[in-house]
Amino acid sequence: SDIVEGETVRELYDERSGITNIVVVEHRERRLHPHLQVFDGDKRIANISVPTGGYLQVRDGDEVKEGDILIKIPRESSKSRDITGGLPRVAELFEARKPKDTAVVSEIDGFVEFGETERGNRRIIIRDEQGEAREYSIPIGKHLRVHEGDRVRAGDRLSEGSIDPHDILRIKGENAVQQYMLDEIQAVYRLQGVTINDKHVEVIVAQMLRKVRIEKAGDTEFLEGDDVDKRKLREVNERVINEGGEPATFKPMLLGITKASLTTESFLSAASFQETTKVLSKAAVEGKVDKLSGLKENLIMGNLIPAGTGSRNLRKLRVKDTATDFSQVEESAASEDFVDIGEQF
Questions:
Q1: Are 198 and 243 in contact (CB under 8 A)?
Q2: Which residues, in sequence order, are CB contacts of 77 under 8 Å at separation 6+?
Q3: Under CATH, what is the fold of the domain 103-161?
Q4: Position 180 pLDDT exceeds 90
Q5: Least packed by Cβ within 10 Å: which of 64, 126, 204, 242?
């Protein structure tokens, strides 16, 4: 139905194989939506939507059996899949960019129902067992991955395309998006036989999820919409709860590595990465103070990094002469002040 030569389908000659295929094209006015109908006698037993770009393998009146191919969807011609060709995908993931061809993802578990077509878009309804429903609008020409009556889970793709990591974070949470990022990034390197330990990617992804956005401030000093470091928010919430107040509520954020680096608490660390003039100018206007709590800022200032010898746990030590009588050492230590080695550096 709605298969009209010159309007919704056209012939395409393949020079390699010498075969002429009938390919589905999008109708200019989007009034016609090609689909195949399968009849058993006078009874219609199937109604199959044909995506734009699909190759028809049957003609009107052909007899088909179960398992016969009705439509072929050609894959894109293989592009350069070496490490250079895969790096843009890695950059897209690490910068947490929205993919160009984004898939529509289900937000709940439930069963698929097809609604009416409106303005060139197909309505798909996901209804769970409790009766809650979510509605999605998908362009007619986009290939669907589900059929009427299928059961889907939250996070499953309803249409073809790449999944937006922000959708996974919103629907399935932090653990799911961390696993997705790890799998997608490793897939690019494994394609060329490059082995990278998961921990290196995990450290970067953990930094991308370092910030959260305040939804309700409660009795904290934060404002709604503030982007706050997880560790700082945890400390403030614990203090507010101990005082009998209401803690702030928040939602997790996924930042690209560039933005994550520029929004760090240390302006010295941020300035050493990118946009140095902008970072330093903003820090000067806001009168920021860098507490030199991280690695990079201490390296820049020529200090010991806060790890190993420079660890904060080792900043205060009792430095005494060796003695055989340990009780004498303990009495001497109890009567004298600590020596702060950290002040000597």
A1: no
A2: none
A3: OB fold (Dihydrolipoamide Acetyltransferase, E2P) (2.40.50)
A4: yes
A5: 242
